[in-house]
Amino acid sequence: MSRSSFDTLLIEKDDAIAKITLNRPDVLNALNRHAIAELSTAMKEAGDDPAIRGVILTGSGDKAFAAGSDIDELSGLSIAEADTYAREGQALMDRIESLGKPVIAALNGPVAGGGIALALTADIALASEKVRFRSGYGAIGLSPDAGTSFFLTRVLGPKRAMEFLLTNRFIEAPEALALGLVSRIVPAERLAEETEALAQQLAAGAPGAQAAVKALVREAWTASHESVLALERDFMIANAASADSREGVSAFVERRRPVFAR
Predict the structure, then answer these.
(1) Shared-domain flag, residues 100 and 178
(2) At what angle do helices 148-156 and 158-167 cross, to 10 degrees?
(3) Which of 203, 219, 240 is the last residue of a domain?
């Protein structure tokens, strides 16, 4: 992964962490079809690279994390092109959510439209105090895309999600934390540092166990109690037989830090 490989992204690889930065600050890091395709490719490369143990997703500049769809492009699409655009956005969110490695969103500024789906599909979201959420859809006569309605309803509940989407109101950082839209609020000047520290902490974890956690939490959103319990058993059996589990147990008994497979 290199900086020069993409037009709309900046890619940095530091040890086991891939940092992906949405790099369209002049349009508040809005997602056009090219950016969606590049972000999907970058996520796939991070997922396929065995040296990468975690991903940070953030936006360039200080005016926005991601403003959602690029309205200038969207307004010129045909019906068929709009359908493709919607499907590509949904596929991107599914790729991020199903990535077998931790994904941290570092929300450096306001989040709107499909940018909300990007923030919520990440496993953990750290946010600066400058963060504010707004759906934005109603103001331009659109309805949610990229899975935004799905994620919002499960995080906020149907009543709060409905009110937020229909009124187009802002949710400021303290309320976003209280509602569970973000994991933690940190000062803007420390966002990059704290995100990097968290990413390094996660990178030292057991990959198999982390992938299982992601799959279990995702399944628990929509599956039955019985099917989630069955999946828990399957993962527990598989991970208990792994080298990482043996290392973790040995480290616990010997009172040292475990060193999991890279």
Answers:
(1) yes
(2) 130
(3) 203
73 closest CA partner among 64, 61, 81: 81
Residues 29 and 133 in one domain: yes
Assigned domain for 199 exists:
yes
CATH of the domain at 107: 3.90.226.10
Averaged confidence pLDDT in the chain:
87
Read off the pLDDT of each residue in 169-187 and give the average, rounded to a whole number: 95
- Considering the domain boundaries, does residue 111 fall inside one? yes
SS3 149: helix
Sign, CA torsion 81/82/87/92 = positive
The structure tokens listed for 29 are 């890091």
Q: How far is CA 39 from CA 17, 155, 213, 228, 235, in A?
A: 16, 24, 24, 30, 29
Alpha helices by DSSP H, listed for the chain, are: 33-48, 71-74, 79-98, 114-121, 148-156, 158-167, 173-179, 191-203, 207-222, 225-240, 243-254
* Per-position DSSP letters for 176-189, written without gaps between them: HHHHTS-SEEE-GG
From the list 191, 47, 29, the residue with the least C-alpha distance to 105 is 191
N-to-C CA span, the chain: 18
pLDDT of residue 228: 72
* Average pLDDT value for residue range 222-251: 75
